[in-house]
């Protein structure tokens, strides 16, 4: 079986598995990687960029190597290759868990349980929830759904199309390392620099594809394109900017503004300033848009891999 078909069947099965099963409560492969990366950090950590770069290479490179060895071991069996691709896709995507957490917060807000919504918000993002009212929580959820559509679904599919199982595992490893050490806290400002920069590079194509597909699948394509064009470059993240701006325009809402992380207050630029304030119903709209984008991304990645394979064969 050709490699493009292995990816197509395996990635589709993996996305379906995520839809039906979600993430396991215990023993998730990404959690196991996180524990291993934490062990490496305890050995290597110094307030130094070079040490952080070694950490990134060891952990991300190890994930790619595991994927390559596994793919090589089953290359003679098409059925097993498809199963491996499906398992890897299921392990690295997180669309169902993303939707579940967002909807749990939305249900709490609909019931008027703002304290309950605040308690759930850390399951989805790193914002300080105590200073947020209901609309602020809803905005944080929509922004997190937008960004994680790229990080937890589309980006993985893009690198799966490029590199098969090693690409899937490598992308998730890089994204996980960024979440662990890539933030600008005093401890990780230097040590996490390499992980953060590598995540910017790895996330670039998936973020742009997510923004395009949000414009295609959203309710206001022109608004999405306009917000992306006018506001994405104002965002401090080169990848979150296009995604959040496109979602904001597609949904007709205003994102950005004052944020608080770990006691540090940031004033982010407003995305789609002509949009309305985010409300609780927009959480469900963002989740549905995220799901449409994920399945469209699968189709685009499968088609791109098939076209590329046809040109090289």
What labels would you give this structure?
313 residues; mainly alpha; two-stranded parallel ribbon; two-stranded antiparallel sheet; 4% strand; globular
Question: How large, in whole angstroms, is the Cα Rg?
Answer: 19 Å
Largest sheet: 2 strands, parallel
Report the average pLDDT across residues. Answer: 93
- The secondary-structure class comes to mainly alpha
β content, as a range? Answer: under 5%
User: Helix content range of the residues, please?
Assistant: over 70%
First and last CA, distance: 13 Å
The strands making up the biggest β-sheet line up spatially as 1-4
Q: Indicate the overall shape.
A: globular
Quantity of strands, as a count: 4
Topology pattern, helix = H, strand = E: HHHHHHHHHHEEEEH
Pick out the low-confidence regions: none
**Number of helix segments?**
11
């Amino acid at each position: 079986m050709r490699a493009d078909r292995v990816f197509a069947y395996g990635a589709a099965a993996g996305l379906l598995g995520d839809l039906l099963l979600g993430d396991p409560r215990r023993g998730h492969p990404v959690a196991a990687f996180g524990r291993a990366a934490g062990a490496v950090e305890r050995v290597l950590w110094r307030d130094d960029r070079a040490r952080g770069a070694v950490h990134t290479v060891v952990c991300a490179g190890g994930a790619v190597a595991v994927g390559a060895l596994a793919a090589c071991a089953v290359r003679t069996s098409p059925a097993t290759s498809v199963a491996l691709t499906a398992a890897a896709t299921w392990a690295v995507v997180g669309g169902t868990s993303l939707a579940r957490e967002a909807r749990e917060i939305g249900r709490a807000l609909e019931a008027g349980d703002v304290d309950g919504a605040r308690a759930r918000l850390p399951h989805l993002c790193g914002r300080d929830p105590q200073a947020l009212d209901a609309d602020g929580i809803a905005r944080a959820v929509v922004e997190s759904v937008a960004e994680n559509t790229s990080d937890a679904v589309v980006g993985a599919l893009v690198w799966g199309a490029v590199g098969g199982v090693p690409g899937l595992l490598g992308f998730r490893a890089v994204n996980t390392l960024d979440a662990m050490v890539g933030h600008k806290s005093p401890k990780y400002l230097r040590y996490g620099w390499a992980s953060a920069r590598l995540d910017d590079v790895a996330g670039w194509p998936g973020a742009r594809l997510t923004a395009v597909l949000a414009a295609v699948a959203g309710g206001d394509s022109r608004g999405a394109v306009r917000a992306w064009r006018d506001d994405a470059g104002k965002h401090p993240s080169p990848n979150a900017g296009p995604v959040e701006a496109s979602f904001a325009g597609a949904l007709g809402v205003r994102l950005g503004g004052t944020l608080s992380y770990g006691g540090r207050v940031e004033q982010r630029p407003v995305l789609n300033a002509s949009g309305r304030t985010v409300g609780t119903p927009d959480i469900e709209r963002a989740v549905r848009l995220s799901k449409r984008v994920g399945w469209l991304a699968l189709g685009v990645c499968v088609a791109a891999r098939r076209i590329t394979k046809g040109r090289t064969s």
